[in-house]
Amino acid sequence: MLRLRPATTADADALAQTVAEGFEAYRDFAPNGWRPPDRLELAIGIAVRLRSDDQVTWVAEDQDATIAGQVAYVPAASSRHPVQDPALAHLGQLFVRRRHWGTGLARRLLALAVADAAAREFAAMRLFTPAAHARARRFYEREGWEPRGEPRLEEPLGLELIEYRRSLTGRPGP
Fold first, then answer.
1. Cα(22)–Cα(129) distance, rounded to whole angstroms?
2. Which helix (H) or strand (E) holds 166?
3. Which ranges of the chain would DSSP assign to H, the alpha helix?
4. Does the chain have fewer CB atoms within 10 Å around its N or its C terminus?
5. Across 53-154, where does the E strand assignment appear?
6. Is the pTM of this model over 0.70?
7. In Å, what is the CA distance from 70 to each residue of 106, 140, 152, 167?
8. How many CA atoms lie within 13 A of 20 on its CB side?
9. Chain centroid offset of residue 20 CA
């Protein structure tokens, strides 16, 4: 049984490991020569964001307290691609360790972030995912997210990303 809880700064290294593992899976669709972000840089960035008042991060942990997955969001104005819309949240992370793929954990974490953002009175949520990541795109579309616009190259990641949005109010999103 997995336990969901808010992340703490003590989780930064474990969260970075989960993200790094997730980025390794990108090699399945990324162009030849693509390299994932540096794990140490990921850990530092995650530690900084965990200290931020803007970011909300949840983790799922195994019985042995190993992080199985995580989800995080911020107001869109605080994201890497800021939008001055106080009603828009930005889903910045949803990573699940490979051994938990297909268990429903990603759906559970995503539902938690969506419900939490709605409770904080966000009207819509957006995310960016690699355009070539067919598995992630199918997942988000099954969960009610809709693609917006054309893919665009994201530096420093070096991949084309596509934006997805979903309403948190039951009405079509912005």
1. 12
2. strand 159-167
3. 12-25, 39-50, 105-119, 134-142
4. N
5. 56-61, 67-75, 88-96, 124-130, 146-154
6. yes
7. 8, 16, 25, 21
8. 16
9. 13
Kindly list the distances between the CA atom of residue 168 and the CA atoms of 16, 68, 75, 90, in Å, as whole numbers in the listed order: 28, 26, 14, 12
Bridging pattern class, strands 67-75 and 88-96 = antiparallel
Q: What is the pLDDT along the chain (174 residues), one digit of tens a residue?
A: 899 999 999 999 999 999 999 999 999 999 999 999 999 999 999 999 999 989 999 999 998 889 999 999 999 999 999 999 999 999 999 999 999 999 999 999 999 999 999 999 999 999 999 999 999 999 999 999 999 999 999 988 999 999 999 999 865 545
**Residue position matching structure tokens 């079509």:** 172
Q: Are 138 and 88 in contact (CB under 8 A)?
A: no
Q: How far apart are CA 51 and CA 111, in angstroms?
A: 23
Q: How far apart are CA 55 and CA 36, in angstroms?
A: 23
Instruction: Pick the closest to residue 117 from 49, 58, 164 (CA basis).
Output: 58
Q: Which two tokens stand for residue 67?
A: 């992080």
Amino acid present at 40? L
